[in-house]
Amino acid sequence: MIIHEHFDINENGHLTIGGLDAVELAERFGTPAYIIDENAIRARCREYLGAARCEFGEDALVLYASKALCFTGIYKLAAEEGLGIDCVSGGELYTAKRAGFPAERIYFHGNNKTDRDLSDAIDMGVGRIVVDNLDELAALSREASKRGIVQSILLRITPGIDPHTHKAIVTGNIDSKFGSAIATGQAMEIVKAALASKGIDLAGLHCHIGSQIFDVDPFADAADIMIRFIADIKRECGYEIRELNLGGGLGVRYTEYDREISYTDAIADIAKIVRSFCVTHGIKMPKVLLEPGRSLVAAAGATLYTVGSVKQIPGFRTYVSVDGGMPDNPRYALYQSQYTALIANKADKPKDLRVTLAGRCCESGDLIGENMELQSAERGDILAVLVTGAYNYSMASNYNRIPRPPVIMVKDGEAKVAVRRETYEDIVKNDVL
Ligand code: LLP
Question: Which of 77, 213, 258, 380 has the smallest number of Cβ neighbours within 10 A?
């Protein structure tokens, strides 16, 4: 096992992904390519849903935050596993619809939905629209009234938690483009406005405190603040909030320096806290929703590249360049995210190099990582970057007019194309002049 159990080494000394030889996958599908172990995602979906139902009750729902990895096949998988989904754009809604995802299990997010987004969402029959602010509430109320329907909503609330200090800080994340803050009084204002709006059914509240969080405490702080707020609403408005969506954000192990995390234990810990706060504040336990993205799909993925130039600059560093880079994985350039890399055809050899892994874009910031440990690399080797299932394909671009890699799903010893490789023709298809 390397970092996660579906990454291993076979008798040829090659990396395997979900039991399949990564070097053979690279030969068959070409590089760069995203490889996704379907069983790893399904196992994680079951873990989340099982733990959520066991801890919060049978009506608990897990929503897959589909911005993490988005294509029709993943929506089909989420539907089969009984999950709901979080969509954040017309494009995600459209993809979900094309996949036949049940609309009533769609939660539509976003801090600036256009009127078209809102009317498309209503017409699709999405289960909940997560309303961000007063402007949007008014626009939605207009659209719903025009159609003579009542749309169920959640309100996006900012609890004011900084997940990295895990203290509720009054200024912290209140300064956010998302949601309405409790501390400024705007959250109560939007609750009252929603209750008074035509065509609106206020089902519940939503919060999301951040991403790649390993500690349960910030979720406990958020739950505490949200449940107090639900109690305040009951007292001030005589209205009972039915649903509480605690967002996503649990962390993922990218390198051996990251902690292992048990999602089952984390959910149990959060549930214990939610139950006790409900008792303390005298409110009925709401239907609880969790909204993980990264932790459902990140570990399942790996990206395969072919090594090109290997350049040693004496006294400085060794650059290993691959046939991909920031267009397929912008996360180092954006966030200095750390990954584990290895030479798939030398996976059993010691990592005796320290390298900068570079892409092929015409930009010096086009790096997949620095100071990465790697086996000695030469032109033609297959290089794998592990744990790329989340926010890689979904954030990929055509920078330098580089076609996006395919997404290959592996399952039970078989591999199939889920998203085909883009062609140069795809790259020019919208150029009309
Ligand atoms: N719910 C809401 C409302 C969110 O905004 C997000 C992530 C999630 C759920 C899922 O969070 P997760 O479980 O994946 O942490 N591009 C960045 C991550 C941005 C996350 C944005 N919102 C990255 O590559 O790290």
Answer: 380
